[in-house]
Design a protein that fits this description.
The structure is a homohexamer of 327-residue chains.
Chain A lengths: L3 E4 L3 E5 L11 E7 L1 H12 L3 E4 L1 E3 L2 H12 L8 E3 L6 E5 L8 E5 L15 H4 L5 E5 L1 H4 L2 H16 L3 E5 L9 H11 L5 E4 L1 H8 L6 H12 L3 E8 L5 E10 L2 E4 L3 E4 L6 H15 L2 H15 L11 H8 L9
Parallel strand pairs in A: 1-4, 1-9, 2-7, 5-6, 9-10, 10-11, 11-12
Antiparallel strand pairs in A: 2-3, 7-8, 12-13, 13-14, 13-15
Helix pairs in contact in A: 1-9, 9-10, 10-11
Chain lengths: 327, 327, 327, 327, 327, 327
Amino acid sequence: MPEVVTFGECMLRLSPPDFQRLEQASQLNITVGGSELNVAAGVARLGLSSAWISRLPENPLGRMVRNKAREMGVDTSHLLWTKDDRLGLYFVEYGASPRASSVLYDRGMSAIANIQPGEVRWRAVFEGCRLFHVSGITPALSDSAAAVTAEAITAAKAAGALVSYDLNYRAKLWSQEKACQIQTPFMNDVDILITTEEDTERVFGITGQDYRQVAKKLADQFKIDVVAITLRGTPSVWRNTWSALAYSNGTFYDDVTYEIEVVDRVGSGDTFSAGFLFGFLTQDIGRGVKVGNAFAALKHSSWGDFNWTTLEETEALIKGAGLRIVR
Amino acid sequence: MPEVVTFGECMLRLSPPDFQRLEQASQLNITVGGSELNVAAGVARLGLSSAWISRLPENPLGRMVRNKAREMGVDTSHLLWTKDDRLGLYFVEYGASPRASSVLYDRGMSAIANIQPGEVRWRAVFEGCRLFHVSGITPALSDSAAAVTAEAITAAKAAGALVSYDLNYRAKLWSQEKACQIQTPFMNDVDILITTEEDTERVFGITGQDYRQVAKKLADQFKIDVVAITLRGTPSVWRNTWSALAYSNGTFYDDVTYEIEVVDRVGSGDTFSAGFLFGFLTQDIGRGVKVGNAFAALKHSSWGDFNWTTLEETEALIKGAGLRIVR
Amino acid sequence: MPEVVTFGECMLRLSPPDFQRLEQASQLNITVGGSELNVAAGVARLGLSSAWISRLPENPLGRMVRNKAREMGVDTSHLLWTKDDRLGLYFVEYGASPRASSVLYDRGMSAIANIQPGEVRWRAVFEGCRLFHVSGITPALSDSAAAVTAEAITAAKAAGALVSYDLNYRAKLWSQEKACQIQTPFMNDVDILITTEEDTERVFGITGQDYRQVAKKLADQFKIDVVAITLRGTPSVWRNTWSALAYSNGTFYDDVTYEIEVVDRVGSGDTFSAGFLFGFLTQDIGRGVKVGNAFAALKHSSWGDFNWTTLEETEALIKGAGLRIVR
Amino acid sequence: MPEVVTFGECMLRLSPPDFQRLEQASQLNITVGGSELNVAAGVARLGLSSAWISRLPENPLGRMVRNKAREMGVDTSHLLWTKDDRLGLYFVEYGASPRASSVLYDRGMSAIANIQPGEVRWRAVFEGCRLFHVSGITPALSDSAAAVTAEAITAAKAAGALVSYDLNYRAKLWSQEKACQIQTPFMNDVDILITTEEDTERVFGITGQDYRQVAKKLADQFKIDVVAITLRGTPSVWRNTWSALAYSNGTFYDDVTYEIEVVDRVGSGDTFSAGFLFGFLTQDIGRGVKVGNAFAALKHSSWGDFNWTTLEETEALIKGAGLRIVR
Amino acid sequence: MPEVVTFGECMLRLSPPDFQRLEQASQLNITVGGSELNVAAGVARLGLSSAWISRLPENPLGRMVRNKAREMGVDTSHLLWTKDDRLGLYFVEYGASPRASSVLYDRGMSAIANIQPGEVRWRAVFEGCRLFHVSGITPALSDSAAAVTAEAITAAKAAGALVSYDLNYRAKLWSQEKACQIQTPFMNDVDILITTEEDTERVFGITGQDYRQVAKKLADQFKIDVVAITLRGTPSVWRNTWSALAYSNGTFYDDVTYEIEVVDRVGSGDTFSAGFLFGFLTQDIGRGVKVGNAFAALKHSSWGDFNWTTLEETEALIKGAGLRIVR
Amino acid sequence: MPEVVTFGECMLRLSPPDFQRLEQASQLNITVGGSELNVAAGVARLGLSSAWISRLPENPLGRMVRNKAREMGVDTSHLLWTKDDRLGLYFVEYGASPRASSVLYDRGMSAIANIQPGEVRWRAVFEGCRLFHVSGITPALSDSAAAVTAEAITAAKAAGALVSYDLNYRAKLWSQEKACQIQTPFMNDVDILITTEEDTERVFGITGQDYRQVAKKLADQFKIDVVAITLRGTPSVWRNTWSALAYSNGTFYDDVTYEIEVVDRVGSGDTFSAGFLFGFLTQDIGRGVKVGNAFAALKHSSWGDFNWTTLEETEALIKGAGLRIVR
């Protein structure tokens, strides 16, 4: 059975080519993407087995999501299917300074939002599982999705799995108040919290002198073993910087800051989670930070939510691969 | 003010290239389409002024629909806008025998479905209007959309405009019973009914020995001035035949049957309505049948819901244009 | 463990768009394809579990093949990987009468051609397997591939699995003499032979008054339980006809002839095998012929080697689905 | 009637994808563009009504220009049509340092170049008009186009409209001497002059210590109410800087300098004019500079001559929107 | 030196994909094409050396034409270049019944139309030349182009070359009267006349009971050694039939009629000329008809003016190649 | 006969669009490329005649290579053809920091690798030739290719041609030891050596304080008239710097360093060789460095191995062309 299990939404992802605005587009490139599937795909890409739990409509779009999860090596045998609901979708417009990239969501009434407690056979899902990962998007989808998230966390702990949680606040889905109220209880069961300085403030109102202090405050306040924070700098839309650090039991784990030429940044946070969890599960926290940081940096360089980078390429970057052509 | 006004939904239309199935697609061609906008666009293309009434979300997709209506020369000044709802969309898969083409709808919770009586200023809309056209899709969208349809028909009559109605039954939107119950009262105000033999049977249970008898029965039963029926033959997916006839006051108006090589058949019925209404309003019923028939036949030869054929090309076909290259 | 196991080559498949000739192309559409993977993919698409055995190079092209096998739901856990060899590839040029479509192979020195006896752990592979399928392409790839084919057939029988064999003669890979010499011994272990009249004559020199007689002769001569034959008519490049029949123990099972509008015929024979095996394993020979025939007919209507048709669509065609648009 | 009227040429615009050179291209992306239509489109995009006057051939290319003007919300009811002439066209090659982008014109013998005085019904056009805008390209097209430009300016003043003029010198269309001789008389009627330091020197021989002095000199010499100057820096082909200032009655109005990542810079000057005129007409000069500057900066980030930016996005940039993804 | 020399215009050729109408296109596929270059390219493709004479603008479009002529193996060393004029262009819209394909020309003021007598060094061009080919399009371009055509024919005869002439009447370029007046004198020097029944009537007013009689009348009236006539049937836009015959000294040479699935018919007549001249020059008239007929039939199956068919494929068709896939 | 002759491999070149990784691609852009053909193409582009010698398979891919060589104006009349072998190919993945671009080769068993001494008629090839150019890739392909390289160098010298050699070390093709052993004897006959600091160290173990010293050491050690070295800086994947210098008889020739925005860097070294040889052969070493440096800098700005830059553009850059748009 899969070592890592994730739970959440995956949407059809549509984007105009060549920096076109949606209004002027006559073609859209399509793939699929969603935070927790991105994590499961990344973990599988690096070499651990993973499964993704969701609820999909029985139509070509739902099947496309399942197919692409399988393509990445993710176990889809526990997916729920429905004849009634729709697949959510989102449109990405790629920007150029001074216009930021943007995302237009059309995710209402999706199959996953209508998921109900009791539908997923969590006990079977978690058999042999080492770690369960979910992000704050899932409980934000609907009250029933929040209930199933709680159900999953409980079942994971019961099965002896670690719980990893990415705060991932989405203002369009719920208020800061509700986000805080729903997620605070989850923190009791969370072993690994992955977040950004900004989300931490918005959801829990926790701020600090710097992100190190924030990480420590989170760990202390919620008694979380590991807190990881990703750090993005945006000197321009096409040039970003990227780094990450983790805090655990009084120790900070940080890493180099990568200079990024941005092809597609959507999904890179999830890719950090995947890399971090892989490194953490196969070695330790320091390795998690290094693999997550490099894996996420490399994600920015190609199109789509998923990270097609190999472990070998990730390790080469960690060791300091150059920018000259590889033949 | 526009001579022809239509009212209904327009969706984003997405289709994979090269006969791909949706599940295997990595790009989608996009445009917009919807029965009543198709009619307004066709009427404007042929040379009468037209306006289209709908309700759209204030986002890039809603604006795209408005833009493309304007591109075709359709007046969009009476559109309603909302910050809340979504734009419906539909996916077209092009077939090849023995696989028929198919359409996957994702139109729930659309802005137009949430339209409410009293929102459209019908009196202003119908100032100077000669004809109002709507299809059976609009009242099928929701109860409130049905109420607004009734409101529109009443206002059109009050303004002295003719009412044209395309039965356009969509089984996914409502039952035959409900379609019959809602639309039967409309028939009192309808001057021109456009339909197919199949839809007539499904909605009103009216059948006959042949389509001529059906047209006559409809006209007699509902006291409708003009009944027009379109006739498609499907020897294969890529080869169709197309014809049309009208009945009015004891007279049948028919026309040649065209041999069609099918590029894209979605929207061709609406194009017939446009051509028929244009011919009827600028000349008479016989001209309506001829223009509608030729205009619709030509629609099949290019991509998208809209008909980019010119009046000059339509007239050339009516006069018997050949199939050799035109230089 | 998978119910159906197949063994063979899969290549990168490159084709110019829009009926271009290769020499004039500036873009190629790519996917992957290969007879036995096509069968495993089709079987999984219809609903049985399947696995595919092959040998792939550890590079992006090898991974792409694995990914796309997984995308179709095929188990790839028993694939062999090598750092040394290449992935074969082939180019498809789509024709229009009077120019036939054509395939240009570049498959020399591929990883699968260098497979060696003993490399595949056949015992583990066949655990729980109901049926093993291979085609005449695999032993044609190299002497060692032929030896592994023999090894596989023996292991399958030992594991209690049925053996299905598609003759699939490729003149560019070996002579008729060698094809006969190598494959004749296989026939002792074959339970289901799938072929065409033409291949039967070329490989075994067996001819008959008609394809029925040929099927019977094959069954009698080699003591094969089931012989299935596919029948293609080619009135033009874009219009084909397609049918199939099977013979077993004195009974002929035949089916309707489908009129086909050809989008892409490469892989349709494999798709018949998949449909036949699915129908046979889930019901009986008659069902196998019907499912295989309809599934293969539908394959022609979309691009690529794989068949994206659903079981539901296949059953609709068997029941006589029409050619009008499906909404 | 439209608040803003512009007059000039619009061409078919063809550009190879992916930084290809024209000689190697096998596909071209197409749209339309021309200085004065770009301005009318931008003004309409921001929210004022606008009309565009030109002369087009009655063929698909002429209709495409009209359609796309309508798509942007521009009134096209006063266009002139001819069966005789052609539509001009131009090819854009996108550069990368050290190769600048370049434009190849093929605009000879166009319908607009053959426009004759008396053909446009200026009195009807200017009914209710607040401002007329034209650039130095229009009189450069031909002697008759220059005469019609003069005619238009006179009619605009007579109708009580302001006159806005963009110097827009094109060396391929006329000499500096002729540009000076023809345009100097226009300056008597110009209320708003939009230009660059470079064009001012080339056409009027006016130079100064800096662009502020140049603006003042222009205003003083020609007694022009408002002079606006755009300022582009080109550290590289993909990175530009952009700013603007205006001078009026002793006051300078300047604004921030934007860092630009260049997707397509063709048409950005026109977009500044549109933004400036919008801000000026709806508020004052200072607002004009701010809106024009931000609207033009944003134009660089997407493909084509037209600016698909919304007023909302423009205002967000003025207020200091960041470069992080918008969800 | 080249065995075959041709003289005429080549234009940029732009066509929308997927049966789109020009007005709706956002991309155009491009290549080049022109009757006499098509012939030179076809002759070179089949295996004789050829050169093409024309006049081109010194810009990327002119160079593209030269490049693509070279790509096909055509000698371009005698081309004339100018800094002043433009390259003609034409747009192709692909049709589907009942809409015929169509061509929109934009060829005015081209470099070739401005060619002047004395500019081409015909004596050098014709050194070692066996045959000169030109079509009726070249003298139709302008009076000076007609004068250069006359000059070329005279020089060819003086150099001992045969003269081949394709009547190729273009109604948009000149009247039937002028076509007759200018071309009648050319007929004195023509050895091979290639035409259609329709063009013969329009230019020379020659009709007959059938095309055989027409061929004979042409040969008799103008004392032409060989008259070849191509025969196209158009049952539909996508299905044509194609055949050809020749008459010489009392003998008729005819051939099979091919069933054609039409991908792109533009340029197929020129391809017949190429095949005919190749067969005639390498063997005899009968071979010319067979090669021309098959080569032209195969041209219809791929995109663009040029024929990418090989001699080997042409001979296979003559021998009766089937329509099944070639592996 | 051509002034410059080159000898080597050309492969089919396939690259995914839009920074996609190969594994996720569904389309590939294709063209051809190979070091020595790139040089011949560049030389011809700038204005000297050139020929390229290679061995190609008689199939569409082999013909495509020949066609594209011809398209660039390269003489292909001495190519060898074979029915047996394949065309090598390579895949380019475009990177973005921190992911470098990379190349995946699939060049085994190619036609050129199987070339044998005695097959090329070198005496005829070198008639009238001024310079022969080859790179270290050719002898690395196989032992027989190395033998033919030696044969070619000897024949070139015998014919009085200069010999130019680009070290071009490819670690995947041979070891440093073998590269040194095979190429050291060649150096006796080399007049112009083009290389990089890195390759010099890898092949000959020559290092120095800086590249100037390296150039001098190479010239001194091997008694080579001219040594040219190219210098690339890689601050990021999208931003490079580029310069070059030459050393000859005690004099250093250097040039400006260009700031490069990288569209496609593959082939730019070959383009330097072409520019250097052109400048050297038409003027002198200093001119060679300047033309080579500018021509190569400009190559980076467009797609593909070939350089579509004109001599006029190259000279404009040398004179200091700006980065503003050229109209």
